[in-house]
Amino acid sequence: MSALQDEAQPRGAKIKGNKPVDQLEAANRFIAASAHQKMHDERLWDLRKKRDAQMHLISEWEELRELASDIKSHTLDHLADYLEEFERNAKANGVHVHWAKDAQESNQIITDILKEHNAKTLVKSKSMLGEECRLRQHLEENDIHVIETDLGERIQQLDHEDPSHVVVPAVHKTRTDVSKVFVKTLNAEQGNNDVHYLAETQRENTRPYILNADAGMTGGNFLVAETGAVVVCTNEGNADLSANTPPLHIVTVGIEKIIPKMEHLAVFIRLLSRSALGSPITQYTSYFRGPRKGGEMHVVLVDNGRSTRLASKKFKAGLKCIRCGACMNTCPVFRRSGGLSYGSVYAGPIGLILSPTFNTHKYRNLPFASTLNGSCTNVCPVKINLHEQVFAWRETLADEKELSLSKRILMTAMGKLLAHPKAYRTAVQTGDKVLSYLPHFVVYNKLNAWGRQRDLPPAPKETFHSWYAKNYKNKGKTDE
Questions:
Q1: What letter would DSSP give residue 237?
Q2: pTM higher than 0.70, yes or no?
Q3: How far, rounded to the nearest angstrom, does the alpha carbon of residue 372 sit from its chain's CA centroid?
Q4: Is the Cβ–Cβ distance between 46 and 277 less than 8 Å?
Q5: Residues 6+ apart with CB under 8 A from 91
Q6: Residues linked to residue 230 through DSSP beta bridges, in sequence order
Q7: Separation of CA 345 from chain center
Q8: Mutual orientation of helices 34-56 and 262-276 as an angle, nearest 10°?
Q9: Torsion of CA 258, 262, 268, 274, to 10 degrees
């Protein structure tokens, strides 16, 4: 048996009420499972490479990104108008439209709809908003059985884990991990980790639920104000089954998913799958304009903090996100630490800027799980300035006194040192000389987090400042 098959899957962050999530501790456990960490890194980097290949096939790629960003900026500036237009047109199509200010209200609206129809079973396609609102847990507390129909989401549901990625929810699992879950929950054949067999096992288990469900639920990738339609993009067709097979179709969607016109939809469809998976288009791009014949359709528009973000000059741009996951696929921290280490519904770079808006104290450590390399910003299809927003969150956390004691002590000391150029230069020169003579165990200890997985580079013979002063400044050659 290979190391990957034999190695136990590392679990996610340990959630302790409202205490700050220790992403570092969970990340270290994921990294320690070296076979899983390597597999995860390679899978996601492969998606990044496929994205780049698709990008190079479209000469107007950067123009598409700029256009998508502009459309989103315009829409956010006129969000109320477009939401009202969507409501008017959706109602004209026979759709019931509801407004929810937060997760609690959204969950209650959906529960009431289901109870009015005496619905006891709900088949559900993938919805990050549902995860954000903890909808499934709420419905199950109200004796409504929820079955996730997306393969990755179903795996995570059966294993009692949250999704680890917005597009590929179980990407951190190996096929052996999935096999073990299915043996326990779906009576799968012991030791059979063939991917086709596992997918068929889940499909055979889920189809009867779909055929007999009282209600179906989907999320929404886009809402088109001009037509009052909901657009859902999937690769498995499960959203179509969830929406069309049961008599009742409920859509739960964030208010930021609105776009003005049908002509704008084409821009985002061209960008979404290419950015997410490196494929030209999703297998199913479904356009729900009204209820099926003899059926009923409800759309629940959810705020849950989005209006607050809309009013923030610093963090408004995060509402442009189309949930493609490209920033996760390229992020070196996410690829090596796993999505569950963030302890939040939204992980990776987008999670670093979204999660603190829900609970600043609980997720105060997340904005520091970044190297600020800017790769996330470079691949974002709607050009969100992700790394700049991560840095802005660090500033905000410092202003709100949400830094840990160790960070406050370190930042205070560094601030004083950097405020005095002579002291800083002396410290650098002294440090470089001392490092050359210190024993290895003194430099690489528990206090040196950077040295746990890498060696420090050898100190240069002289600092840039001294080299510049000697070769240019003192000779008056400042422009060379």
A1: S
A2: yes
A3: 17
A4: no
A5: 97, 228
A6: 223, 288
A7: 7
A8: 140
A9: 140
**What CA–CA distance (Å, rounded) separates 170 from 3?**
19
Region 83-308: CATH code: 3.40.50.10420
Q: Hunting for tokens 């060379």 — which residue is that?
A: 480
Domain range annotation of the chain: 83-308, 421-475
Question: What is the DSSP secondary structure assignment for residue 460, as one 8-state letter?
Answer: P
Which are the contacts of 57, defined by CB distance < 8 A and separation ≥ 6? none
List 259's β-bridge partners, or say none.
Answer: 224
* pLDDT tens for each residue of the chain, 480 residues long: 566 778 999 999 999 999 999 999 999 999 999 999 999 999 999 999 999 999 999 999 999 999 999 999 999 999 999 999 999 999 999 999 999 999 999 999 999 999 999 999 999 999 999 999 999 999 999 999 999 999 999 999 999 999 999 999 999 999 999 999 999 999 999 999 999 999 999 999 999 999 999 999 999 999 999 999 999 999 999 999 999 999 999 999 999 999 999 999 999 999 999 999 999 999 999 999 999 999 999 999 999 999 999 999 999 999 999 999 999 999 999 999 999 999 999 999 999 999 999 999 999 999 999 999 999 999 999 999 999 999 999 999 999 988 887 777 877 877 887 888 888 888 777 766 676 666 766 667 776 666 776 777 777 777 888 888 888 866 655 454
DSSP class per residue in 251-307: EEEEGGGEES-HHHHHHHHHHHHHHHTS-SS-SEEEEE-SPPTT-EEEEEEE-TTHH
231: nearest Cα among 144, 163, 169, 299: 299
> Which residues lie below 8 Å from residue 292, measured CB to CB, with a gap of 6+?
243, 244, 247, 249
Collect all residues with Cβ–Cβ distance below 8 Å to 204 and sequence separation of at least 6. none
**Pick from 319, 401, 400, 385: which is nearest to 349 by CA?**
385
- Alpha-carbon distance of 146 to 130, in angstroms, equals 12
Helix (H) or strand (E) holding 80: helix 79-92
CA distance linking residue 232 with residue 290, whole number of Å: 13
Give the separation between CA 361 and CA 18, rounded to whole angstroms: 7
d(CA 275, CA 278) in angstroms, rounded, equals 6
Query: CA-to-CA distance for 324 and 165, rounded, in angstroms?
Result: 10
Tokens standing for residue 327:
């920033």
